């Protein structure tokens, strides 16, 4: 699609998908950090009663069940991934406990798991030899991420690992 040519107005499932996303912004302001679509669509959603998170989850699941809804395979997969993420977010906003691994899968379409501790021990040993400032970030109980800033542009890391070992995760 040529970015210089305006897109046709969304219809059907896509319009409902856009409105669903805008409804999340009614639950948590800033959830939608940018909306470049039709301002009338945003105004329409803003005029609705405040949505209930559980209902938003049901809407996301209903829309997901309608896919592909005439969309090509890649577009349907894209929208489906977003709908799965929105359904998970709705469950969390509704107060449901969602496990960290399940949440990561819903948001990022990847199932994480623990790896081989020996591999991580080796990675720790390699990190001991790196002269980089490291900063450990808590992501969720038991999960952290390590940010490393290279002081040498020629230095590089092979793999990104974000799994706990000894209460920390590594980038190696």
Main features:
disordered N terminus; two-stranded antiparallel sheet; mainly alpha
Question: How does this structure look, described?
Answer:
Strand 1 and strand 2 (143-148) form a beta hairpin. The radius of gyration is 21 Å and the shape is elongated. It is built from six helices and two strands. It has 172 residues and is mostly helical. The longest helix is centred in the middle third of the chain and has 21 residues, at 73-93. It has a two-stranded antiparallel ribbon. Helices cover 47% and strands 8% of the residues.
Question: Could you give a short description of this structure?
Answer:
With 172 residues, the protein is mainly α.
- Class from helix and strand fractions: mainly alpha
Q: How many angstroms does the end-to-end distance come to? A: 39 Å
- Shape label: elongated
Q: Count of DSSP E strands?
A: 2
The major pleated sheet works out as: 2 strands, antiparallel
Q: What's the pLDDT, averaged over the residues?
A: 78
Helix fraction, binned, reads: 40-55%
Order of SSEs = HHHHHHEE
Report the C-alpha radius of gyration, rounded: 21 Å
Give the uncertain stretches in residue-range form.
1-9, 144-172
> Strand content of the residues, in percent?
5-15%
């Amino acid at each position: 699609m040529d970015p210089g040519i305006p897109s046709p107005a969304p219809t059907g499932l896509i319009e409902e998908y856009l409105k669903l996303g805008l409804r999340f912004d009614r639950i948590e302001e800033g959830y939608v950090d940018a909306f470049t679509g039709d301002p009338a669509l945003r105004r329409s959603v803003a005029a609705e009663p405040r949505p209930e998170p559980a209902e938003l989850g049901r809407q996301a699941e209903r829309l997901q069940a309608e896919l592909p809804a005439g969309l090509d395979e890649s577009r349907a997969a894209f929208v489906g991934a977003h709908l799965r993420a929105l359904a998970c977010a709705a469950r969390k906003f509704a107060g449901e406990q969602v496990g960290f691994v399940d949440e990561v899968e819903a948001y990022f379409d990847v199932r994480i798991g623990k790896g081989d501790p020996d591999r991580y021990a080796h990675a720790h040993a390699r990190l001991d030899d790196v002269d980089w400032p490291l900063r450990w970030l808590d992501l969720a109980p038991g999960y952290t991420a390590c940010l490393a800033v290279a002081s040498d542009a020629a230095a590089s890391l092979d793999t990104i690992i974000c799994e706990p070992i000894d209460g920390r995760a590594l980038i190696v």
